[in-house]
UniProtKB/TrEMBL annotation:
The protein's Enzyme Commission number: 2.5.1.-
Gene3D superfamilies cross-referenced by the UniProt entry: Decaprenyl diphosphate synthase-like
Active site: D33, N81 (proton acceptor)
Residue runs in coiled coils: none
Homology family: Belongs to the UPP synthase family. Z-FPP synthase subfamily.
GO biological process: polyprenol biosynthetic process
Function (record text): Catalyzes the condensation of isopentenyl diphosphate (IPP) with allylic pyrophosphates generating different type of terpenoids.
Species annotation: Arthrobacter crusticola
Subunit structure of this chain's protein: Homodimer.
UniProt xrefs under PANTHER family: DEHYDRODOLICHYL DIPHOSPHATE SYNTHASE COMPLEX SUBUNIT DHDDS, DEHYDRODOLICHYL DIPHOSPHATE SYNTHASE FAMILY MEMBER
Cofactor annotation comment: Binds 2 magnesium ions per subunit.
Protein name per Swiss-Prot or TrEMBL: Isoprenyl transferase
Database matches in InterPro entries: UPP_synth-like, UPP_synth-like_CS, UPP_synth-like_sf
Length: 253
């Protein structure tokens, strides 16, 4: 039996009233999973699922802005996914490019690329770099766009940059090894300078990280949702925030 829309609206208002402003996550990571399955269930081309997922991203960022979330990291394209059939990847990259254009036109979010840009087509990598510069001074939700992203790749890239940086300063491997801490590696990650995610949400019922923010999510809270990403509703988001607000964070203790 389908629940009437007014009932959802009533439930949403009730959930939102129960949220404590001081318990809203500062940084949320989102694994936007389920676009392909959504298209298959709808009997539509895969590209329709990716487009529906892209449309949901804009809606989701509006919810975050409304509720006071400061930073959002969107897992849009992994290094593993870049091995999918060429036609699908080309369509997906076009949709991502269009999504970036819409983010820039909104003039409401600050965009930062998170990933190995050298793996992307030159025009998309350039668009990401230009958008980061264009939106750098916008006082809105900080949106990390994880495209061409892999958690292991990020850690390897961070270590490489750390080693090169140390070599430029004339440090030996022995000196680096003696002083190396986790903070040193954190300072060379794609998200350097940012607070680690408080909450990581994954849609589509899958319960694994799939390489997403492997280093940064060491003490994150996780919320797994059965809804496919295009079907992810505001009420599900509010449930995730309610669940987060009820948890006692221990940070490894």
């Amino acid at each position: 039996m389908k629940i009437p829309e007014f009932a959802y609206s009533f439930y949403e208002r009730r959930l939102q009233r129960g949220l404590s402003p001081e318990r809203i996550p500062h940084h949320i990571g989102v694994m936007v999973d389920g676009n392909r399955r959504w298209a298959k269930l709808a009997g539509a081309p895969t590209s329709h699922g990716h487009q529906a997922g892209a449309d949901k991203i804009h809606e989701f960022l509006g919810w975050c802005e409304e509720l006071g979330v400061d930073v959002v990291t969107l897992y849009m394209l992994s290094t593993d996914n870049m091995g999918r059939p060429q036609e699908e990847i080309e369509q997906l990259l076009d949709i991502i490019a269009n999504t970036l254009d819409r983010l820039g036109e909104s003039n409401r979010v600050r965009v930062q690329p998170v990933g190995a840009l050298e793996l992307l087509p030159e025009d998309l990598a350039g668009k990401l770099a230009d958008l980061a510069a264009q939106t750098a001074e916008i006082d809105g939700v900080h949106v990390n766009v994880a495209v061409g992203y892999g958690g292991r790749r990020e850690i390897v890239d961070a270590v490489k940059e750390l080693l090169l940086n140390s070599a430029e300063k004339g440090k030996s491997l022995e000196q680096l090894a003696a002083e190396l801490t986790d903070e040193h590696i954190s300072s060379f990650l794609y998200t350097r300078g940012q607070q680690d995610p408080d909450l990581v949400i994954r849609t589509s019922g899958e319960q694994r990280l799939s390489g997403f923010l492997m280093w940064q999510s060491a003490y994150s809270e996780f919320y797994f949702c059965e809804a496919l990403w295009p079907d992810f509703r505001r009420v599900e988001f509010l449930r995730a925030l309610r669940d987060f607000g009820r948890r006692q964070r221990r940070f490894g203790s």
